[in-house]
Amino acid sequence: MKPSHSSSSTHLHLLILFLVLVLFVAAAAGDTTPTIFDTICGRNQTQDPEAFDVNFVTTMEMIFQNITESGFGAAVSGGANTVYGLGQCFGYLAPTSCQICYFQSRLKLPHCLPATDSRIYLDGCFLRYADHNVSADATDAYDTSVCGNASTNSSAFNDAATRLVANLTAGALNQTKFYQVGSASVAAGVSVYGMAQCWRSLNASGCRECLESARASAVKCLPATDGKALNAGCFVRYSTEPFYLAASSSGGGSSARRTIIVALTSVVAVLAVIGIIIIWKKMRSKDDLIDDLDGSGEYIRSISGSHLSFKYEDLRKATDNFNQINKLGQGGYGSVYKGVLSDGREIAVKRLFFTTRPWVDQFFNEVTLVSQVQHKNLVKLLGCSVEGPESLLVYEYLCNTSLDNFLFDSFKKNLLDWERRFEIIVGTAEGLSYLHSASEIRIIHRDIKASNILLDERFKPKIADFGLARNFMEDQSHLSTGLAGTFGYMAPEYIVHGQLTEKADIYSYGVLVLEIITGRKNHNSVASSDEGHSLMSLIWQHFNAKTVIELLDPCLQKRCPEEQALKVFQVGLLCAQASPNLRPPMWKVVELLNSESKELPLPSQPPFINVKGTSSKSNSSESPSVVTSSSKSPFSLNQISVSQLDASSSNVNSQ
Ligand SMILES: *[C@@H]1O[C@H](CO)[C@@H](O)[C@H](O)[C@H]1NC(C)=O
Ligand SMILES: *[C@@H]1O[C@H](CO)[C@@H](O)[C@H](O)[C@H]1NC(C)=O
Ligand SMILES: *[C@@H]1O[C@H](CO)[C@@H](O)[C@H](O)[C@H]1NC(C)=O
Ligand SMILES: *[C@@H]1O[C@H](CO)[C@@H](O)[C@H](O)[C@H]1NC(C)=O
Ligand SMILES: *[C@@H]1O[C@H](CO)[C@@H](O)[C@H](O)[C@H]1NC(C)=O
Ligand SMILES: *[C@@H]1O[C@H](CO)[C@@H](O)[C@H](O)[C@H]1NC(C)=O
Ligand SMILES: *[C@@H]1O[C@H](CO)[C@@H](O)[C@H](O)[C@H]1NC(C)=O
Ligand SMILES: *[C@@H]1O[C@H](CO)[C@@H](O)[C@H](O)[C@H]1NC(C)=O
Prior knowledge:
Blueprint: H1 3-28, E1 36-41, H2 49-70, E2 72-77, E3 83-89, H3 95-108, E4 117-122, E5 125-130, E6 144-147, H4 155-172, E7 179-187, E8 190-198, H5 204-219, E9 226-230, E10 234-239, H6 243-247, H7 252-286, H8 296-305, H9 312-318, E11 327-330, E12 334-340, E13 346-352, H10 360-372, E14 381-385, E15 392-396, H11 403-407, H12 418-438, E16 453-455, E17 461-463, H13 469-473, H14 492-497, H15 502-518, H16 535-544, H17 562-575, H18 586-594, H19 617-620, H20 639-651
Antiparallel strand pairs: 1-4, 2-3, 3-5, 4-5, 6-9, 7-8, 8-10, 9-10, 11-12, 12-13, 13-15, 14-15, 16-17
Helix pairs in contact: 1-7, 2-3, 4-5, 12-15, 12-18, 15-17
The structure holds 2-acetamido-2-deoxy-beta-D-glucopyranose (8 copies).
């Protein structure tokens, strides 16, 4: 027996076991995605969305551990920008269903970010996060009710439902888990079912207060056949449907039927698995060529055996348990840590804000594709971990961190002489040009900025954070923040209309080039800049007055070829023209930078300059802020612009 064969058959057995388990759980849980009753996002927004997001993720991970053990979890994380969280599964959910329900709520709740206090109610569980301790909240201004459409005109039903709800809300108080279900028959074939549940963090008096208010608001739904009260500290429901029996794992005749269904489903599942395996084996024996990426065979094989798949445990060890000391920085989609693998290889590990568990296969395909996009000016994606409690991406590690750490530091900027800066400008253009046209999959970066340009030991630039934006970040269900780029770098058509094409990257690149040679940050609004002018308008004025060379970074003055510097100014302005059509494509930019000729097109339009009154002065004075759907911003990327964004990005390929 060949060793390779024996190892692949072990994989096969594990695989069968895994698939059977997955299908069994899916069958046992019935309809696996619980209905969302309501999502309530708070009206206040956090001042620091990035820090808040990080704490949000940590808090949610902590709740996950507790809620799967006991059906209830409360947690807090973060010093500044503290995020409190509270999750409660309703008494009628079995542990597996509780996990699924928590998972669904965890997935949907980030829609509300950057609101500081939001909650979601599902058929089976509740989840809330806030910037303050909400454990004792019984009722508050966000309390609401959700009533069914259908109604009955039987007064007997109304009476029975009213009595039942009163009985259950009083009874729940006497239960250790603050939970009570019950039913009453109204007429032949008609019954009313109900439940009352307080979160376990309340004390008896808080629970009483909450249930009393919820009872009153639930019965206001009558004569609807279904009424739900959604309070800060409890949940009450009545319905003509036996909703808690459908979800519970114990109970009379319906349970027997379910057992049969589960058994049947399992048999079908096993048969299906055997079928898949036979097909898979056939495909393998026919030829060893790599089949197409959509084939399930390829997916299964790539996950289990791929060199792109890292073990979560290994990465946790490599980063010393995600020790703060190893933290390299914070990107739009997650925080990045330095790690050293057991074989001594240095890596950068990114913890994603969103979790990919439901899309493991798509995500893995995406990682596979992006890992094939390789260029000397692009940070290499080494792989990912999708099986642990959170999703991780693994990148090559670059020792000189990112460009912004040098460019905007009055001491360290001296390390960037003209040759290095020019090399960074050209290298970034080449990397971007490759992303836009030369690679197999066409990639719009969306967030070109100084902190996304990493530097290796010889100060060669590599663009970070590209590619995985394609499918995952576009879909709002993954995370609402992080859709937008960074303000000072964003193209006007992207900010105002949400149009996203390569031209938006070219604009950002133009801003970056001008920052590199002036050594100044492009502030996001006129108001926040010291001179009363944005960097862009300043450069434009000086360019027209033919005095632009005065704006060269003081530490470059007299230490660089003036003609070449002028050319770079001009290229920067060409790329940052307000009209997307006037900006040259990246391959052209590379050509312009490398050519000896002095013939350059003249920029005909001033750059997009002013976005007035977008963000508060205090946080825009130092760093450009990330655009979030702040109510203050006239350009917030709301639902409308996001859908335009999706439409336009799918058009890109056909242009
Ligand atoms: C929103 O913020 C204001 C001012 O900080 C505060 O007074 C108010 O209570 C907050 N509202 C909510 C719903 O948290
Ligand atoms: C949550 O889990 C942690 C560790 O698993 C445990 O120490 C803590 O007591 C739990 N808290 C609750 C409320 O169950
Ligand atoms: C939140 O408040 C409750 C009581 O109101 C308290 O028991 C709990 O320890 C608090 N949680 C934190 C994290 O401070
Ligand atoms: C309630 O009614 C509206 C319009 O009459 C309909 O669109 C909606 O689907 C109904 N919802 C349910 C749960 O039946
Ligand atoms: C309501 O009552 C009317 C007449 O009493 C009857 O025709 C109708 O079917 C009833 N509707 C429901 C939903 O029971
Ligand atoms: C609720 O109803 C049950 C059965 O009808 C009864 O035994 C129980 O005492 C009632 N509880 C309350 C609080 O009324
Ligand atoms: C709750 O329990 C107490 C005693 O433990 C009892 O006196 C009271 O009647 C009960 N209340 C209800 C509503 O069942
Ligand atoms: C219940 O909790 C509330 C809020 O934390 C507190 O004000 C009240 O004193 C507590 N009641 C009892 C009986 O512990």
